[in-house]
Structure formats: C-alpha cells, structure tokens
Amino acid sequence: MKQRVVYPGSFDPVTYGHIDIIKRAAHMFDEVIVAVASNASKKPLFSLEDRVAMLKKVTRNLKGVSVDSFDCLMVDYVSRKNIKIVIRGLRMISDFEYEFQMALTNRKLNDKIETMFMMPNESYSFVSSKLIKEVAILGANLSEFVPSFVEQKLKKVLQKNK
Amino acid sequence: MKQRVVYPGSFDPVTYGHIDIIKRAAHMFDEVIVAVASNASKKPLFSLEDRVAMLKKVTRNLKGVSVDSFDCLMVDYVSRKNIKIVIRGLRMISDFEYEFQMALTNRKLNDKIETMFMMPNESYSFVSSKLIKEVAILGANLSEFVPSFVEQKLKKVLQKNK
Amino acid sequence: MKQRVVYPGSFDPVTYGHIDIIKRAAHMFDEVIVAVASNASKKPLFSLEDRVAMLKKVTRNLKGVSVDSFDCLMVDYVSRKNIKIVIRGLRMISDFEYEFQMALTNRKLNDKIETMFMMPNESYSFVSSKLIKEVAILGANLSEFVPSFVEQKLKKVLQKNK
Amino acid sequence: MKQRVVYPGSFDPVTYGHIDIIKRAAHMFDEVIVAVASNASKKPLFSLEDRVAMLKKVTRNLKGVSVDSFDCLMVDYVSRKNIKIVIRGLRMISDFEYEFQMALTNRKLNDKIETMFMMPNESYSFVSSKLIKEVAILGANLSEFVPSFVEQKLKKVLQKNK
Amino acid sequence: MKQRVVYPGSFDPVTYGHIDIIKRAAHMFDEVIVAVASNASKKPLFSLEDRVAMLKKVTRNLKGVSVDSFDCLMVDYVSRKNIKIVIRGLRMISDFEYEFQMALTNRKLNDKIETMFMMPNESYSFVSSKLIKEVAILGANLSEFVPSFVEQKLKKVLQKNK
Amino acid sequence: MKQRVVYPGSFDPVTYGHIDIIKRAAHMFDEVIVAVASNASKKPLFSLEDRVAMLKKVTRNLKGVSVDSFDCLMVDYVSRKNIKIVIRGLRMISDFEYEFQMALTNRKLNDKIETMFMMPNESYSFVSSKLIKEVAILGANLSEFVPSFVEQKLKKVLQKNK
After folding, report:
1. Strands C114-118 and C65-70
2. What is the ipTM of this complex?
3. If 0-12 CB within 10 Å is exposed, 13-18 middle and 19+ buried, where does residue E161 land?
4. Which pLDDT belongs to residue D1?
5. Backbone φ, ψ for residue D118 (5° rounding)
6. Contact status, residue C54 vs residue C150, Cβ threshold 8 Å
7. E73 → closest Cβ in A94, A127, A139
8. Domain boundaries, chain B
9. Does F105 lie at the interface with C, CB-CB under 8 angstroms?
C-alpha cells in the first residue's frame, strides 16, 4: 500500500523545527500532507492563508509533500482523506504530556487513526513558535530559528500589531 | 471519628474523571463534600449555579456525597467546616507540579489541613475539562468524556458564546 | 466508621521524611499501621527485625500508630487487615511515576484498596534512604536526615559491610 | 513502496502492552518485524529462545507480523534489513527520556533510520515487565498483564530461580 | 577578574524565593545586578518603577547588589554591561523546561553569555508570584511568602484593580 | 576576588558533553578544578588513575583548568580547597531530579557551598557515559560522543572485561 500521512499543526509561523520533521517524514513515507489548523479560537498571529503560503514556499522542493488546511476536528479531516497515520513532533516533556493527552482524546474520537511521534534534530529541540515571537518583538536576529523570508514577514506583522 | 473530606475544584464542567474520583472517595470516607470554587477571576464557561446543578445531578445516588460552593480561600472554607482532609485527583506530571505547589501553599496558609491525592481510573487519566471544551467547539462526540446531559449543556453554551 | 490506614515501605532505614508522613497520617486517621516490606529480593541493608525495631522506637509516642511487617503482596496484606486505604509519600517526579505505576498495578490486583498520596514537609522533600546511605559511607553528618540512634546504627552496619 | 518497520525490545517477557503496540503497527504498516535483543549483558530472566517463542505464539494470527532476534547494534540490524522505520512504545515520562536519549544516540550511529513513537492503549500504560516480575515473585494473579501461558512460564522460571 | 553577574526577571512582585537567590548570588560573586524586565507585553500587575523600588528596598543592606531595569533583549542588556554570567533560579520541572528553552534560545542569540541555574532554599521552592497573586485576591495572609510591605502594596493594587 | 570553581564527577569515561561544560566554565571563571570522584562503591569501568589521565589529556590546552581526584564527601573536598562554587551539567529531567536531590543534600552537609547548574550544547544533551558503554560493547563507532583516544581505551577495557 502507498503510505500517506498527515502532519497537522498551527505553524504560526513555520520554524526550522517543523521543516526538519517534514523532511524526515518525506524521507519515510510516500506522501506527507502538512495540514494547517485554522484554530480561529486561538487567535493566531498569521492568517490561515499566510501560514499555508509560508509552508508552500518552504516545502516546494520536497517530493511527496503537499500543504492543506482544515477547520474541523483533526480526526474528521484525516478520516475524510482516508489516512491512518498522524505525525507529531516531540521536543520536551511538556510537549509529551499535551501531545499524549491530545492523541488519547483523538483515539477516543476515532480509533482507526494512530498518532506517531518523531523527534526533531536536537538543534531544533528548543525552538518554539511562541518563544520566537517573544524575542522577535524585542528585535532579535531569528536566522537560527526560521527562514529569512519568515523572519521578515514576522517582523512586519509584529510592527503592524504594535 | 466520622471521617469527612472535601473535594474542591472548578468542575467546568464535571467529567467522568471527576465522577470516578468522587465515587472512590465515597467508598473510603463517611462523607464527601464536592465543593465548587466560584473562581470568578478565571472566567469559567458555566455559571457557579450550573456547575453545582450538574454535580448534584451526577451524584444524587451516591451515599454520603453532597455538593456545595465557596468563594473564599479554599483552606478557610475547609477549616470552617471543621474538616482536615482535602482530596485532589492527579492524572499527569503537570497536574503533579501545580497540585503540589498549591498544596504546599495551602499548608502554609493552614497547617491543620492536609491534601491527599488520588488517581482516577487510567481510562480517565487524559480527560481534561479544557481539552473537552476545545474539541466540543469543533463538534466532537463527547460520550466517552462526560455524561450526555453535560454534553448537551456544553454544546448549548458554546453555541451561545459563538 | 473508624478509619484505619496502612503506610507500607522498605524503611531501610527510616528517615525524618518517613516520620513526617507518619505524623501527618496519625493526625488524620484513627489508626496508622506502618508496614515494613521484607523485600528479600532487594537486599536491604538492615534486617527486617532492625527496620521494625527502629520504626517502633521512633513511633512509640504517637497515638494510634503501630508497626508491623509483611512478606507477601502488599494488597493481600492490606486486604487481610480489612483496610481500604494505603498511604504513600510523594516527593519528586520520579517518585510520582514509580508510585503511580505501582498503585495502578495494585489496583488491578485488588480494586477495593485505594492508594492515597501525601506530601512530606518540603524540608524533607529531598531526603532519600538511598542517598543517605551513599553519603553515610563517606562519613557525612546525618543529623538533618535521620534520628541520631539511626545514624549510629547505620554507620555501624556500613562499617561491618566494608 | 511497501512499508516495513522493526519493533525492537527485550520482551522479557512479552506483555499485553507490547501486544497492543504490535497490533497497532500491523494495522498501519505492510510488515512488522518484532526483533528481540539478545541483551546478554542485561541478564534477562528468559532465554532469547523463550522470548522469541512466546512472541511467535502471541503473534501467530497477526497478518504481516514476524519475529526475529539480533545480538548486534540495533541500527546495524535494521540497516541490514534495508528498513527505515523503528517503532517504540512510550508509556511514561521516564520512558520518554530514556527512549529519546537512545533514539538520538541511534540517529548519530545511523541517520537514515528514524525512530517513531506510539502510545499503547491507556489500559496498558502502566504495565512494565519489571514490575510484573516483582509482583509475580509474590504470587500475584497476572491475568490483567500477560497472556496466561506467559504467566505460567514466568512463575515456573521464578520458582526455579528461587 | 572581578566577577559580575546579572539576575534578570519580572519580579511582579519580589518574593522570599527571589530574595533567597539574590543573597546566595551575593555570597558567591563580587557584584550582582538584579535586572527587572519591563515585559510590557505581559501586562505585569506592578509598574516597572514599583518593581524596581520594591527590589531596592529589600536589597538595600546587601553588599554588591544593585537594581536596574531593561526593555530590550536580555542578552543585549547583559552584553552592553560586559557581563558573561546570567543567574536564574530553578524550582520545579516546569521551570526547568521553560528556563532551558529560554537559555538555549539566548545562547543562539549571543553565545558569549552563559546562564547558570541556582536552587532556592527548599522552603521557597513552591513560592510563585503567580500563585501568591491568586491567593492574595482571596485575602490570604502572605507573611510566609513576601515581606510585609510587599504584601501591603499587593493588596492595595489588587483592591484598586477589582 | 579570584573566582575558583570545582566540577566534580565520575567521568567514566570523559565525553564531549563533559568537555563542553569544562570549556564553558573555563570561559567564565579564573580557575576550574575538574575533580574525579573515586566512587569505589559504584565500580567504575576505568580506574581512578585512567579517568584522571584521560581528563588531563583533553584539558591540557585549556587555560585555568586542572584535574584532581577525591575519595571523601564532595563538600569536604571543596571546603578544604576553600572554594564556594560547584559546577554541574544538566541535560535532562532525570538529571535535574537527581542533581537537585544531591545538591540539597550537600547544602545540608555544608551550607557555604553552592551548586550551580550549566547546560551543555544541545548537541551533547543526550550523550551519557552509561549509554556510550552500552553501544560500545556492541561495536558502535563512538566518534560523535568521545575523543578517539578515549574510544580506543574504552574498547580495550571492554574487550578485557568480556
């Protein structure tokens, strides 16, 4: 069987940590769908369109990777695509707890879908979208954390929100 | 001596995890007072009255269990009741840290009251009121997490808040 | 009903942390049985008799506290005593994991017995029988960790084992 | 591409937790090789042959699942099989740390092999081969933790080792 | 070389836990600069001026300790002072994760500055500015957690914000 | 005052993770004494002499760094040297717990000595002497974990112990 997986997330914005996971998944599976959650209730910094566009740009040369979005239950989205495997990155203990809680909840909602966890490269194990936004506000150089076009977009948005 | 205990919480809303703890406590102690914190500053989704009413409904057949509420320091409430034992459920590491910090703080506030921790059944070890509300907004079936009348009330409130 | 509880452990040897838990339990329950596990397979430093004797000495003035031992499954021991509550102290995250694993295993073995966790005073939250033995070998002053007669017994045993 | 994965471990002995992971993996991948590490230096309770035989028995009706063993570096074994994905179960925080340390070490040894983590059913999240052996010595009923033929074999071996 | 260190934080408000770390640092280093982050985006309860003033009052008798503030990246502030060591207190696992993530991010931003972690006295290991504010709202006696003039200021501010 | 620190440990054998901490400490303090614990009771793989010799070789070009050994309580050793600061590396949660327990125990034994924790580079955050020995037995290439002369010594010792 052709193995297809979904990698869901907020990607607000995409970081080198996310990109590392996408590349690893693309190396292992035939098809990887990066699926952006609209997460309207979490008030993301970037619009859904911007988040999708940034992901499309960083994955445009990766074979078997596509970008999509959803605004329903993640398991419903995955089920409609007829996919069985969901990929999530795990960096730290606190990720672990939240991710397990979410994955067990998702399993109760749909027990045909399995969450599999991957480790990013240890160089990205501390990169968090939240922390990046905090230091970006203070003018930090983000070249170690995100691609340069993401850094520019991020600083423009933060400027506007001031 | 007749052993009375208080099980305080937000119960916003009550879940099968809470109900499991209440049943275990009722099996061990003569009297269990489920005490709902008003927590006005935390902006609960349900009113204090609704949370008390839901708890009364789910505990109406449990011998020795009553439901009450308080809007003061928890240790002051417990102390006025002349009770020495406070029950709290522990599900995960992050619970553990917050609960210990709170219990040690409470001990400094009143060293005659002891917090005792219980484990819910492992089937409920990942059920969280917060996560339930997140998936409820997206239309998830909640029958594994809360009684059906709570699911209905929850969906009605979320509809209204949209 | 008269509330009786068991506080099981290796107590190899008893520390101020254990004593703190015993006192708290005695303050809350009518009867506290401190039950020493023979744990033959773990090769304790002190004999079962010595561990029981030390506990008897430190608890001799505590009302409602008795000392006993067992060499079977803990839940079988507790069940034969017709007791429903087992007390365990929790100090750290690693305790938490081991204790939960053990408590859930015990619940599968006998679901009528409930484990309840208590916190020692924060001054004793880092005292471990294992660490005490490690520093005792190197001649450390143990007056902050164990009663002085335990310190003497410990140093005598370690001397003999050299 | 046909997706093949290796699920390595000590399996000393196999538990319902392991079996749950094997079934989930078999549901998602074309071929699952359960690979028993000889682990001579860790002095397993069961011989390599016994551990392989028990796994063969419990997996004999699972399509796509085979059992094998290895006594070299795990990544070398997996690489020789021309496989890219290693499966590991994650139950608790302490698993998480050890497993991540091992997976990152393995990645340094061979960066073409990826470790993916899966969650067992929460009913098995506390089942540990080590704990099972501890309670088995004391005569516990193991029917909740291992298949009955494993329980019998375990009790026979423990009897012999006494 | 004369050893100078920076102890940065929000100090909203200063607690006995912070004061314990400041005293320990002052005992080890020639000069300790307590540096208050303006953290405008986190909406602190106390103004920057109030937080600085409270710290000046509690440290006025400590040799080598001064109080300052900054509203830029912490590593830029420390770098301009020509200092190499940043001190942070660690109390719990959740601190540990956040602090490590922040420290590794800071190291990427400036690899000449090193974060060193210290433990407060275990009596203060559970004192958190956030929890203190929660119980203060409910009228708790704070004498175990903060100096009395801080308690008074805190209750006045909370009264005003009601 | 000239700032001197002790970095104690087993160093069985020294890894790139240890070397990273030594370099960071040497960058910040005037004098760094790497102090090897004899730890006779822990049965190290390498003799005390070998461990000291390996450390001397890897630190021979680091200004201000010296190597020593001790077979008493660490705090007694540090106190005799008239030093106030002990350095320890922290990599993971499990380190954190053990290290804090040890540091608090040491503080009770001598409250004039302070333990300060540092983070290794994240590339070494998973390198453990124990794990290295496990994979070395199976013939792994260790060039990412230890200097090549250490790898050779390690493989020779493991060969001999077989």
Report:
1. unpaired
2. 0.91
3. exposed
4. 62
5. -125, 155
6. yes
7. A139
8. 4-160
9. yes
